[in-house]
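Form 12-C: Joint structure prediction
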Amino acid sequence: MTATTERAGARVLARTDVTAALGGVVDPELDEPITDLGFVRSVDLGPEGAVEVHLRLPTSFCSPNFAYLMASDAKDALSALPGAGCVVVELDDHHDSDLINAGLAADAGYRGTFRHEALDSLDELRATFRRKAHTAAAERCLTALLRARPQLREEDLGEVVLADLPDDGTTAALRRRRTALGLPDEPGAPVLLDDDGHRVPREQVPLRVRRARSVRISVDGNAHFCRGLLRTRYPGSGADQAPRAEGAGPVPVQLLTTRPHDTTEASA
Amino acid sequence: MYSKDGVDYFIVDAHVALWDARPANQRNVHGKQFIDCFYDYHRNLSPASELWSYEEYLYQGGERLMKDLFTDGCVDHAVFQPARLGEFYVNGFGQTEEAFALASAHPDKLTYNHYFDPRDGERGLDRLREDAERMHLKGVKLYTADWHGDSRGYKLSDPWTYRYLEVARELGIRNVHVHKGPTIRPLDRDAFDVADVDHVATDFTDMNFVVEHCGLPRLEDFCWIATQEPNVHAGLAVAIPFMHTRPRYFAQIIGELLYWLDENRIQFSSDYALWTPKWLIETFVDFQIPQDMTEYAPLTVDQKKKILGLNAAAMYDIAVPEHLQVANPPALAQPQAVAVA
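Section 2 - Result
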């Protein structure tokens, strides 16, 4: 037993495993992995499976509840790695850094960390933003279909089922979110669903689509703004950001060539 | 007034501040974090030609404000919307007396709105009565994520907020500018959620609720509420600079606002000194919805006139020269709510 422990103790976690684990942690608001957003500032591996990760956010005043969710999810994901030893996750430069880091170090949980400001849990918050992410994903599929088929009318979108969608990344992203939420994902399932996962009555379809569109605009707009703010706040952090996989929106080619601002973001 | 292509625009900047974020006024690290956050917004969204140094950004003073808004900025009238931030700054963030004195010296150009905090209890109600009388308040700015002792936020639907709104109404305060921030109690909920605006807009139908940043980062929740409440308006602070960095995103924001609200309930705001008004006005007058975004109608000149000034002028009883008015002025127009099943 002693020999096994010593051998295990000499082990260092694989960096690729650590990165993969952090890649499973999602910013609920922006619906993207923290690794793609550039929120992982540093990863340090030590002996005996020790790992210390520092996170950074676009502003000091990013919502503390979302900040805590990402940091505690990161700690959970790293602690679950086979061979993980002492896991330290710290959030840098946030107005609640001291509070959140102390809570994480003590494994105090949400209520133990925020004390009188926490009522029950962050489950409902998380669920709300998973629903928004799903709504935005469905809208991306439907709007792409509207543009691809000019004869298709908005009021007909309630009839569109998953099998009608092209086999592409946008559709795959919708299916992933269906699975995560336990919503119907068989080929005959409608793309447009109400809040309870049911088919939307025909007369309500246009309004439902418009609401979904406002959700998608909001999520995508926030994602681009937050990414830009991170680059402004931490020079060089853009190198740690992966292009946003979804939500760039269907930008016509002619606009990309004639309107440079469409793809340019301030990087000062 | 701003003129372009033979068209004259009456300009009301509905959200400006006279702040002091210099180190001597910072109470703690949060004072620095707060202004640094603003400065990053400024750096991230401004054209290179409009960038300020950090030192300029910390404090402007009245003279600089008058120059930036009225001499250089083409603004006809501006409304102060101060944030207290008493836990971050020794003398607060918005400089009450300096701004109020400036507004008193230039009543034709400046309106001073003040704030209240429902967590100040009965004494705060007395203070509100005194402030309303002394400052002739027509409006207040409420920052719901302001810290206050152990509390780091409140909701408009809290019982004490209702008491304050009832007193404000008695005092003739008609316009409530709501600014959502990241903290609220309990933290279980989304602090940016604007559902509480829905409650107060329903219960105070004779008051206007202007949601700053048009609800961003929750544009969707804001639009859904505003479409059902005709006394809910959108302030364009922070949203309008996206014209420069992300014009297609801004086109979608303004397109959504025009769809869910209407052209009479959207107000131009530079959010000075986050940004200066001149380039925002120039860019907005030239702005158009991209042709491929067929889901939105093109912006009309009258819509731009209303957004840039006529809507806020109607809300604040600011006199508009007759030749600058549109055929269907905002005060006479009926809000066009979208039918919600």
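Section 3 - Comments
Chain B has one domain: 2-324. The CA atoms of residues 225 and 253 of chain B lie 15 Å apart.
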